[in-house]
Amino acid sequence: MNTIERKELKGELKYKDTVILTYQIQYPEITSSPYESGRKVFNQYNRQRALLLENRVKTQLYQDAKDLYDYNTANGYPVMVYEIVSQFTLTYQQGSIISLYNDQYEFTGGAHGNTIQTSQTWDLSLCQMLPLSYFYPDNPYYLLDILQVIYAEIKRQNESGENQYFENYCELVLETFRFENYYLTPTAIAIYFQQYDIAPYSSGIPVFFITYP
């Protein structure tokens, strides 16, 4: 059994004695596992991702926040505090398989912030992440099956009023489908799209659950 802990990088960045940016970056770390090589690769990958994001926060985003502070104070506008929050959710863990998704929220001014979702599905015994095709070894047309489920679910949600999608959702699903945008749950494969891909902001991040083949 793998033991996974939640690690965190966080801080506040000031400019002219004013906090203009806050960040909280969580990332997973496997502290014990029967798959030692896979554990090391997993930890190195996720630690590096967190450090790269922290570096971007302290350089690019901090500079952007300073520029916005100077502009707003010079023009009598309120000070806007940049906020970056990156959190992960473990969705599946069985044997050597681990799956999770990460939501990275950024507020950099404007009416609201935006969230980007990414995901990882690992086989620690192989020391690597698994592509979506791994779960359809005998079905070269698995994408068509997935799209049929997605289209049927969007139609159902539209008709029931459960959610809203753009009118040309069929075209948009094809344009914005990404093979890496999936994660595992105990009962299904989750396929997700980013905000604005196929639905308005108010609909959040659309997720569709595909029964295991």
Characterise this structure.
With 213 residues, the protein is α+β, with helices and mostly antiparallel strands. The chain folds into 2 domains: 3-129, 2-Layer Sandwich (Heat Shock Protein 90), CATH 3.30.565; 132-211, Heat-shock cognate protein, ATPase (Actin, Chain A, domain 4), CATH 3.90.640. It is built from 3 helices and 9 strands; from the N terminus they run E-E-H-E-E-E-E-H-H-E-E-E. The chain has helices at 36-74, 142-160, 169-176; strands at 3-15, 18-32, 82-94, 97-107, 114-123, 128-129, 182-184, 188-192, 207-211. The strands form 2 sheets. The chain has a 6-stranded mixed beta sheet with strand order 1-2-3-4-5-6, covered by helices on one side. Strands 7-8-9 form a 3-stranded antiparallel beta sheet, covered by helices on one side. The chain is flat and about 60 Å long. The mean pLDDT is 96.
How would you classify the helix and strand content by structural class? alpha+beta
- Named at the architecture level, the CATH assignment of the largest domain is 2-Layer Sandwich
- Largest sheet: number of strands, sense, barrel closure: 6 strands, mixed
Order of helices and strands: EEHEEEEHHEEE
Low-confidence blocks of residues: none
The quaternary organization reads as single chain
